Amino acid sequence: MSSDDEMTLSEVGKLRRSPSVDSIPLSQMDSDPTTTSADSDMPKVSKRKAKNSEGKRKRAKKATAVIKDEDNEDEDVPLAQREGSPKKSTTKKSTSKVKVEKESVSKKTNSKKVTPKKEEKESSVDAEAAAVAAAEEEEEEKYRWWEQEDVDGEQKWESLHHNGVIFPPEYEPLPSHVKLYYDGKVVNLPPQAEEVAGFFGAMLETDHAKNPTFQNNFFEDFLQVIKECGGCNVEIKDFNKCDFSKMYTYFESEREKKKALSRDEKKAIKAEKDKLEEPYKTCLLNGRKEQVGNFRIEPPGLFRGRGAHPKTGKLKRRVYPEDVTLNLSKDANIPEPPAGHKWGEVRHDNAVAWLAMWKENIADSFKYVRFAANSSIKGLSDFKKFETARQLKDHIEEIRKDYNKMLKDELMQNRQMATATYLIDIFALRAGGEKGDEEADTVGCCSLRYEHITLKPPNKVIFDFLGKDSIRFYQEVEVEKQVFKNLRIFKKPPKQPGDDLFDRITPPMLNKQFQNYMKGLTAKVFRTYNASKTMQDQIDLIPNEGTVAEKVVKFNAANRTVAILCNHQRTVSKGHGSVVQRISDKLKEMVWQKLRLKKMIIELDPKLKKKDPKYFEEINDLTKEDEEHIHKAVIERQKEAAHKRFQRENEKLKVEDQELLPESVLKERLEKIDELAQEYAEELKSNKPIVKKTDTVEKLKAQIEKIETRIVNTTFQLKDKEDNSEVSLGTSKMNYIDPRLTVMFSKKFDVPIEKLFTKTLREKFNWAIESADDNWRF
DNA sequence: CGCGGGACTTAGTAGTGTGAGT
DNA sequence: ACTCACACTACTAAGTCCCGCG
Questions:
Q1: pLDDT given for residue A72 in this prediction
Q2: Which CATH number fits the domain that encloses residue A313?
Q3: For the segment A12-27, what is each residue's pLDDT rounded down to a tens digit?
Q4: pLDDT at position A618, please?
Q5: How confident is the model over A353-370, as pLDDT tens digits?
Q6: A608 or A397: whose pLDDT is higher?
Q7: Residue A378 Cβ < 7 Å to strand B
Q8: Claim to verify: residue A630 and residue A617 sit in the same structural domain
Q9: Are residue A270 and residue A330 in the same domain, yes or no?
């Protein structure tokens, strides 16, 4: 399969599944009498039972439950016996220093310096010294943390100095003519309430504002705020009587105004903003300058929860300095809070990596101000993450062997553990922790419920559920026979829709089990591992040939396999359908033009048709209807273009204070197009295009060639659009694919790294760019 | 063990800045 | 030169996982 071919989900699944399947001899999977027994215990229920009112779903108490079904011919040892014996393959590396192949770096620096000069032995010493010196010099500029010894996990920093955070500007009341109307009456809202109304007004045309939950939550909080600040002239009771349209129009006009500002004005505004933000953008970490990530306190607004979030639309309250906790060195200068305010708290906790923190009022959780992605702290933890994932490859075989065996364990809990591990490993599911009633109903592996999977014998499973961010996970896959059997057992009555499939295990239990194989191994590591492993495998399939653009396309195709594996989606943009339509229309038109040109050649030299039948084979591929349709479209477009051109020319003349073109010019032009339409109509009848006197066979052939390359390009573009329309490559590139793979690809395939990483990603992954070479492997 | 608090990574999208195509 | 779609960045929501407590 060429890597740019579309790959379906199940193909990806197969691709991924093969190693594990290979490692278990079929003989190990004994046949099961239940396979053929009634499937009647699989109701096709897809409707979800109302959530248990207690909030928490039931989880069986007796973890010791033994599977008493027909499966008990299994002679496997219960896990209990195994549990005490952690896998011997504990990592030696875990204690060693975290260093990114320092040697290879310096070596490379060397060879770079040496090779061009072809000097050998003696100079290599000098070169090394020079390299070291250069490195040290650079260190003034950029701290090469990945060449340092690891400062053992516990402590995150030695010293930390920063300038605090930026607060959003205070609310500025709307001009007095912009009001909320209630039941036709002007409402005079106190500023605080007006602000909240404005939040809604600004969103009036969004999907959120049309969502009843959003409306209710907003309205409830809006009324609360009105009450808090002493009410207003009109008693507001009914959301539907509120008219926010004046506010909306005002915000729109303000937006237009802003857009209409001249280039210089915009620049000036931006310069001023930058100047104000300058001090907050960086901080001093262990004496070195580092970027801060989100130094701005989140502004108040309406909470935009994703999916069916019960709290969506609630008011996200303004955060004041009193709500903010700062974290910095004991001896650091404490930034001045905004005038008239005090900081909530000042801490000196070097076991954490945040600069400031506050509590938000929606879920009552914390928000943090942290270092930027390109900081040494983030880089180091990113590096560690990938190293952990990379280590997994030394254990994965054993893990797979074990869980395949444990799929038949007689202990229900163990079977669930094994089955869950299988799903996490093969289908890249997330762990899936419990969620409360106050959150959107989304699931991961351990929180999968009865209604989320459908079983189709002999071994097909259909997953259909909402995962993180309420993104739908829909896959029809084939699983190991034993997995299928187990899933059926997990669905057996009395289980019914609404019940957990994995009712005896939790993510912490899984993770605890994983630690037995390898320090730091948790459920999410499987995603990182499998993503990077897939990428490595895909890159291995790419031939080192073609143009840079072609290679980038192949790289993206590989990237896409990973994104599909991880189910990274994006919503198709509103215009997508029409865009695709337009491109395919354009494509058809080009084909028509090509065929038309070929017909012309025959007109010029009818003998050619016999001489090269293949070349002319396609000339009648388009139906009359198609052709007519295309004619219409072409004429339509030309007319439109004529109108536009006329308008533009006149506008220009107007500006130059010259005489405008008379309507007759436009008319004349349109008439010419009508003539063309006539010609086309004739052509349609005769099937013989009119050939210009100046045309020759050679000229036409050249034109055809041009069009053909355009057709190829456009076809490609269209395909890429369609393939990519719902897949988001960015997330996997940023979080799952070891950046050293990308760097390796860049070097090995001679593709500039700029084509693969954006500026931000290059900064974030600088450690990888500096440390991986063309034969680095995950 | 189970739970809640806390800190961190992962995720899609809104809103821009910008460069390819005309 | 001008648009207009696209690519990137900023933003912040939504996960995971760890820890300490009862």
A1: 43
A2: 2.170.11.10
A3: 444 444 333 333 332 3
A4: 80
A5: 999 999 999 999 999 999
A6: A397
A7: yes
A8: yes
A9: yes
Active site amino acids of A? 736
**Gap from A16 CA to C12 C1', in Å?**
33
Q: A193 and A140, same structural domain?
A: no
Do A608 and A717 share a structural domain? yes
Residue A629 lies in a domain: yes
The reply to whether the CB atom of residue A368 sits less than 7 A from any atom in nucleic acid chain B is yes
What pLDDT is attached to residue A652?
Answer: 65
Q: Could you tell me where the DSSP H helices lie in A24-96? A: 79-83
What is the total count of domains within chain A? 5
For A544-558, what is each residue's pLDDT tens digit?
A: 988 888 888 889 999
- Domain interval for residue A233: 180-260
Question: Tens of pLDDT along A425-456?
Answer: 999 999 999 998 899 999 999 999 999 999 99
Q: How far is the CA of A645 from the C1' of B22 (A)?
A: 13
State whether residue A760 is helix, strand or coil: helix
Same domain, A686 and A595: yes
Q: Residue A755 CB: number of other CB atoms within 10 A?
A: 13
Same domain, residue pair A510 and A430: yes
Could you tell me the distance in Å between the CA of residue A549 and the C1' of nucleotide B2? 54
Strand order across the A288-291 sheet = A160-161, A282-285, A288-291
What pLDDT does residue A337 have?
95
Rounded Cα distance, A302 and A653, in Å: 48
Task: Judge whether A756 lies within some domain.
Answer: no
Nucleotide nearest to A431 (CA to C1'): C16
Compute and round to an integer the Cα radius of gyration of chain A: 33
Does residue A759 sit within a domain? no
